[in-house]
Write a structure and sequence with these properties.
Layout: E1 5-11, E2 14-21, E3 25-30, H1 44-47, E4 51-56, H2 73-87, E5 93-97, H3 99-110, E6 117-121, H4 126-131, H5 135-140, H6 142-147, H7 152-157, H8 161-170, H9 176-191, H10 194-207, H11 210-216, E7 227-232, H12 243-248, E8 254-259, H13 266-269, H14 271-285
Parallel strand pairs: 3-4, 3-5, 5-6, 6-7, 7-8
Antiparallel strand pairs: 1-2, 2-4
Helix pairs in contact: 2-3, 8-9
Length: about 290
């Protein structure tokens, strides 16, 4: 079994908690909210058999610093760009789930050609979501709006993260009982304090503010890196919007497929299929 090491790396002004394993082509695994790099526990050891895999906790989440200030998508991407510089990693493949997928997109747009390729798991470009919001998608994405309310979410959820997360996860995964049993305690502990939940909520406040400004200033810009898009149909974002169509408006070279026995949390619900699709993608690219 490949050993996974853990470390703290100071980059872009914050201490970032990082898991690292394996040798070969670098893969950077970027988790979403409300998760931590624990989300990659099932895929990281397998990918590390043939790749150099790095999985940080994102700004404000897990064991990475939770500073006051900006949590916009460009700041998040700069965190990872700086982290890779500190680790001496060049030409990585970025694999992002949820917010990690949007971070991968911004990385590719801000530093075109520095990533070898990207895989984005079950997340839609937010500008397109907001422009095409339906009653069905708004109901599914209720937490976008809840988390964007100033000061309130963290006060309501602090000390009750298990209740909040159980409700959120249940409707967004294929098999709630198995999924919740495997990870609820870990994520509830990570988000149970007011400080931790506030940091995560900052992502959604930026979604309606600075992130929109960033996208609207460069509406025609597209990712040039090959992009793999994967999504779940049973509670995933791909169940309420046409993800492949959306990402083909954001990138020049897009391919992808749906997982019928997964909801939103693909790396935890269908880790074997995620690894298989990633390896197929890598093979197509000669990685």
């Amino acid at each position: 079994m490949t050993d996974i090491t853990e470390k703290f790396v100071f980059a872009n002004g914050i201490q970032q908690y990082v898991l690292e394993a394996g040798k070969g082509t670098p893969l950077v695994l970027l988790h979403g909210w409300p998760q931590t790099n624990f989300a990659w526990r099932k895929v990281m050891p397998v990918l590390a058999r043939s790749h150099h895999v790095v999985a940080p906790d994102l700004r404000g989440l897990g064991r990475t610093d939770k500073p006051d200030g900006d949590y916009d998508i460009r700041t998040l991407a700069t965190d990872i760009h700086a982290l890779l510089g500190e680790l001496g990693i060049e030409k990585p493949v970025l694999v992002g789930h949820d917010w990690g997928g949007l971070l991968a997109r911004r990385f590719c747009l801000d530093w075109p050609g520095e990533a070898r390729a990207a895989a984005i798991l079950d997340v839609a470009p937010h500008e397109q979501v907001l422009a095409n919001l339906s009653a069905n998608s708004a109901k599914s994405l209720w937490h976008f709006f809840f988390n964007a309310v100033p000061d309130l979410p963290e006060k309501l959820v602090a000390g009750r993260a298990d209740i909040f997360l159980r409700y959120l996860f249940r409707d967004k995964c294929y098999d709630p009982e198995t999924f919740l049993a495997e990870c609820l305690d870990v994520y509830a502990k990570a988000y149970d304090s007011e400080e931790a939940f506030r940091a995560g909520a900052q992502y959604y406040k930026a979604m309606f503010g600075k992130n929109r400004d960033i996208d609207q200033k460069e509406p025609a810009k597209k990712m040039v890196e090959p992009l793999l898009c994967l999504w779940g149909t049973k509670g995933g974002v791909g169940g309420v919007v046409d993800l492949l169509h959306m990402w083909r408006q954001e990138a020049e070279d897009v391919r992808g497929c749906a997982f019928d026995k997964s909801g939103h949390y693909l790396p935890e619900e269908e880790p074997g299929k995620v690894v298989d699709e990633l390896n197929k993608f890598f093979s197509e690219l000669g990685i």
